[in-house]
Structures are given as C-alpha cells and as structure tokens.
C-alpha cells in the first residue's frame, strides 16, 4: 500500500495541469523559453482552470488571482480578468523565468526603467492561445481591454530559490512616484499593509504616466461606484483627474 506522504502533490488536478507540473519538476535547467515550451506542450485549455476562476474578486483588486500549485522552486497561478481589469506595472520578484498563456483577448505592455525613469517599450494585443515569456528583468502590465472575461495561466520559477517566487515583486506607482514592494497581487492602489517596502523617486515619461493615470483612475472610479467612498479614495480620484487635466493642458499648448 502506498504511503500518503508518497502520493505526488499534483494528483487530483486536471491531467494537462499534471503534465505541466511533471515537465517542470523533472527539468534541472529552466529558461524562459523552456518554460514556454513546457506550457505549450501541456496544451492546457481554459476548462482545465475552472476550479481556480476568481471573477468575483473584490473591486479593489485589479484582477482575480489563485494559486494552482506551489512546486517549491516554481509556482503555477491562474488570473481572472473582467472587462477593464488591468494589473499595475510590475516585475516578478525572485522569478528567474516564467511563461504566461492568455485565454482571451488581452493586452500586454512592456516598460523600460532607466535611472528611475519609466518609459513604454511596447503595447500589444495578447491574443487567446498566445504564450509570452517572462524574464527576470521584465517590467510589464497585462489587462483586459475587451468586453469579455477570460483567464490566463502563469508559471514563475527560480531554481534553488526558497520562499514565495514572486514575493518582493515591484509595483511601479507613477501616481505616488515610488516603487512599492509586495508579496501579493500587483494591484493599483495597494493598501499600506500589503506594501513591504517603498522607494521614492520614480518618474515616467508622458505616454507612460498618462496611460498609468487613466488606468488607475478607472480602478478608483470602479471602487467608488462599488460604494467604497473613503476620503483617501475620493482624494486620489480628484488628484488623478487634476494630473490628467494638467497633462492635457500642457500638451495643447505645445
Ligand atoms: Fe506579470
């Protein structure tokens, strides 16, 4: 009779997810491209992820987030994106490699950080079935510009690492002009108790700041519409609206 502690932890999950877990566990070297190949070969379908959907996530959270599997040196997660859900601009903590598969019509933006100045490298559609690689130095953002909810599958890892793989991820907050560290979701307007450290002095170019503020304001408006009318949230909405109006005034005079 097999002892309970010898039963692989991944059993009980859908077969294609087990395939992905086994292929990641048996590798002794993993690069972002290898992680992408593992995700591609597993051929996971949106139906395989239904147990981990989180479309009822709190409005204060920028998207739904569920852990499927903690493999020690890697983790597999499912994100749930309602129409208009956007992550904050972020990186991935200790992750050295990763891969993200979209199951809907997502948008993917990539950024460059140079001397605490953030600029936009690209903004592209991230279509259903597409798999993007995640490198350690990737600063990016994902969101749902469509009118349909969808899921995405995320694999992050770091061989030899102990502790949460994406713990210590950075959020690039252009409204508060700072970099915030968190061990949880990379949401706009993260509450203070979810920020482990903060470094001031971040700036963004016009395009990046404008887009950031519009997306942050959209999230604030959703929270206000949901009944979360705190003074801080109302002040944030006013300040973001003022910043955006100032940006547009400056532009019209250029
Ligand atoms: Fe990410």
TrEMBL record:
Task: Please state the Enzyme Commission number of this protein.
Answer: 1.13.11.20
Q: One matching Pfam family, short form? A: CDO_I
Q: Domain of life of the organism in this record?
A: Bacteria
Concerning Gene3D superfamilies, the annotation shows: Jelly Rolls
Where on this chain does Fe cation bind? 90, 92, 140
**What UniProt keywords are attached to this protein's entry?**
Dioxygenase, Iron, Metal-binding, Oxidoreductase
Q: Please verify whether the record's keywords include Metal-binding.
A: yes
Q: What residue ranges carry the coiled-coil annotation?
A: none
Q: Which InterPro entries match?
A: CDO_1 (IPR010300), RmlC-like_jellyroll (IPR014710), RmlC_Cupin_sf (IPR011051)
GO molecular function terms attached to this record? cysteine dioxygenase activity; ferrous iron binding
The entry sums up its family as follows:
Belongs to the cysteine dioxygenase family.
Q: Which PANTHER family match?
A: CYSTEINE DIOXYGENASE, CYSTEINE DIOXYGENASE TYPE 1
Name of the molecule in the record = Cysteine dioxygenase
User: Whose protein is this, by species?
Assistant: Acaryochloris thomasi RCC1774
Q: Which gene encodes it?
A: cdoA
